[in-house]
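Example 5.3 — Peptidase M16 N-terminal domain-containing protein
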Amino acid sequence: MGSFDLISSFEVEYAPVNVKKWKSNRTGLEVCLIAKESPSVSGWFALATEIFDDSGCPHTLEHLVFMGSKKYPYKGLLDILGNLAFSTTNAWTATDQTVYTLMTAGWEGFKMLLPAYLDHILHPTLTDEACYTEVYHIDGKGKKKGLFILKCREFNLSLLSLRFWRNKEPFIQSQPIDQRQEDLLRICVP
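Solution (predicted structure tokens):
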């Protein structure tokens, strides 16, 4: 596979599945293929996005990735192509990684959508306009808007949420809420 070396290959005893794992000798990228007969094809693409603060940058980036890419600079293109391929796309951010998922009805749809999907993940456009619409802006009526803000409001930093933030790092339990958390409160609470 070009610059990829096969590092593991095995059959699973309890199911008709073959698992293969490759690693790029140039970049260190690892690819795992689980070959199994199925009417659907799934791809999970995990990227290390660990940071050591509560700024929300990885989650913000997760949203911006879907706004366009270098080769496909169009918001909503993945949704349009996805409808043609009977697919779903999603993502989530954990403490140390962001995982982007792609699931299609069959290999043909996956093969058609994969180049655009990977370009969005690896080469997002990250424009100011996308940040305004997807992350944060104040509309003409002085209201805080943006998908990220709506998700913050869903989370609704109530007293229960504040306890989560304060208990996240035991050494700040007896300290006042730090500036970053105050900023989150200011943005997220209407």
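Remark. The chain has three domains: 1-37, 39-125, 133-188.
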